[in-house]
Design brief:
The complex is a heterodimer of chains A (166) and B (377). With 166 residues, chain A is mainly beta. Chain A is 10% helix and 28% strand. Chain B has twelve helices and twelve strands. The chains are: A mainly beta (166), B alpha/beta (377).
Chain lengths: 166, 377
């Protein structure tokens, strides 16, 4: 009885259960709902006029309210991008593929998306792109409603035109 | 006590405390509160040179949760920021220390926790040791019940006594427009509410609630310009005990006692009776009685017996928004001493003792002494 057990218990397994439901908040709720209608919404800073997308309640730089909601076009320019050559957890896309930061026309911050329907080497900083949406009836009000962006074939934007949005 | 730097509370704002705010994320709840607190202190964000938040990743369900509120606390041009994974009352303490080190002169302290998005019962269970305690499924209510039971056995206080303490807080809460439960309920009625975990009844426990809070602190020289009636910090100390619940005497609070002794010494006061207002971070009637013992206050059972007014806000029994509960006690001290407590204001109050707690069964305790005059000349 006084002998320690020969096989020691080295660890215990505890399966943590922590349920959460994240509230979108009225601003993001508007944005997500609009995606279903193939619309992209932003909000405008009352102090600087900067347009944030997705819409923010307040501007990070001016600490001012952004109560005005504005609609943005679903096209813009690739400001910066990378070419993914290794499989990423949770994503099943044929390699290599392009992930880009896209500054929508009229927005002061970028959103992120894939660039497809072209070769990775055809994507450049300044390439003009437009959104390719999931078909009607399949959009569910989340970011996957924009399947990807594709090049429009327009001339690429000069660096000076978007350098402030990098 | 050597001379320290005079630091004052000069502004406060909070969001309404509700069971669930389905329209706002945590940062969105906090933003208007920060703006209001700055407005109350007559300053702009650029006039603030330090900021600190108190929050919990487990409450919010995300890693490094504090980083989500950078934008709404103000992070541009790049600011000095810190964070405590504790009630924001401890964030206020960290700011006070920073001001003693003369690293800042005006600061904001924020509390936030989107309690309704997660499950407090699960989260608070994980605050315990995983081998012996968490695996039993203990949560805050059950550990508080173990404590209440032990206290009742030792002190002789019965169910009616707990009901009386709860009723007194509910009556106070009815006069506090900023708390969550704002209806007075008699002890007899509370005693009829069902047991949640015996001996604690539904009427002896706080509701689930969430809010966002922001307190503005400033050092002398600035504080007087920011507030008509700054409330000065005369003394503060915090102490912690074992996590292992079985290794502590649950019927008393040694850490509160020691923190109070040190805070009183710093403040140059003899004891709690030098204050006109005492605000306790007690989430059950038993905790309040244990804290009263630790501070040297009468139990208050069987009629009032003079001495300071205890829990004019209604205490956390009327609102316990996690991560904000302690900072709200400090806010009550500020409101009471600066003439901002409205109907519940204690007339002529010049000194307040404020307490906040963290962990299971009063594991960690902070005690502040606040005054209407500067402590050091």
């Amino acid at each position: 009885m006084n002998q320690p057990p020969e096989e020691r218990v080295k660890f215990i397994q505890t399966d943590l259960v922590l349920p959460y439901h994240y509230v979108a908040g009225d601003y993001k709720a508007l944005y997500l709902r609009a995606l279903k209608d193939k619309k992209i919404l932003g909000s405008k800073c009352s102090a600087t006029g900067k347009v944030f997308v997705p819409p923010l309640m307040s501007s990070p730089d001016a600490h001012a309210p952004c109560e005005e909601i504005v609609e943005l076009p679903d096209r813009g320019i690739v400001t910066t991008f990378c070419v993914v050559n290794v499989p990423v957890y949770g994503r099943d896309i044929e390699l290599p593929y392009v992930v880009a930061s896209v500054a929508l026309d009229g927005a002061d911050v970028s959103i992120y998306g894939l660039v497809q329907e072209c070769k990775p080497e055809d994507v450049e900083m300044g390439t003009r792109v437009q959104a390719v949406w999931r078909p009607d009836g399949e959009r569910q009000g989340d970011h996957s409603d924009i399947k990807y962006f594709k090049p429009t074939g327009e001339p690429k934007a000069p660096l000076e035109s978007f350098i402030h949005r990098l | 006590m050597s001379k320290l730097r005079n630091v004052a509370i000069v502004g406060f704002a909070q969001a309404p405390i509700v069971a669930e705010n389905p329209h706002r994320t945590a940062p969105e709840m906090l933003y208007p509160v920060v703006r209001q607190a700055l407005a109350n202190a007559n300053v702009e964000r650029k006039d603030i040179d330090y900021q600190c938040a108190g929050s919990s990743d487990y409450v919010d369900g995300r890693a490094f949760s504090f980083s989500q509120v950078m934008e709404v606390m103000g992070a541009w041009p790049p600011v000095q920021d810190s964070h405590v994974e504790m009630d924001a009352a401890w964030a206020a303490h960290l700011v006070w220390v920073k001001m003693q080190a003369e690293e800042c002169d005006a600061a904001i302290v924020a509390g936030f926790g989107k309690v309704s998005e997660g499950s407090p019962m699960h989260v608070l269970n994980l605050q315990l040791d995983p081998f012996y305690h968490a695996s039993l499924g203990l949560d805050h209510v059950s550990t508080s019940a173990l404590q209440a039971s032990a206290y009742m056995a030792k002190s002789g206080v019965d169910d009616a006594g707990l009901a009386q303490v709860a009723a007194r807080n509910r009556a106070a809460g009815a006069k506090n427009p900023d708390t969550q439960l704002r209806q007075a309920v008699s002890a007899a009625e509370l005693q009829k509410t069902p047991f949640v975990t015996s001996p604690l009844r539904e009427g002896y426990l706080p509701p689930i609630g969430e809010t966002a809070t922001c307190l503005v602190l400033a050092a002398e020289g600035k504080a007087e310009k920011m507030c008509d009636r700054p409330v000065w910090i005369h003394g503060v100390d915090h102490r912690i005990e074992f996590q292992t619940i079985g290794a502590r005497d649950l019927t008393s609070s040694a850490s509160t006692k020691l923190a109070a002794k040190n805070a009183f010494e710093m403040a140059g006061v003899k004891g709690v009776n030098d204050a006109q207002v005492v605000e306790l971070g007690s989430t059950t009637p038993a905790e309040e009685l244990i804290l009263r013992d630790a501070l040297g206050l009468p139990s208050g059972l069987g009629g009032t017996s003079g001495g300071p007014v205890v829990n004019p806000s209604g205490s956390p029994l009327c609102a316990n928004p996690l991560m904000n509960t302690g900072l709200l006690r400090l806010a009550e001290g500020f409101r009471q001493l600066s003439g901002r407590a409205g109907e519940r204001g204690v007339a002529g109050a010049k000194r307040a003792v404020v307490h906040a707690s963290g962990g299971h069964c009063l594991q960690q305790n902070i005690v502040w002494v606040l005054g209407t005059e500067r402590r050091w000349t």
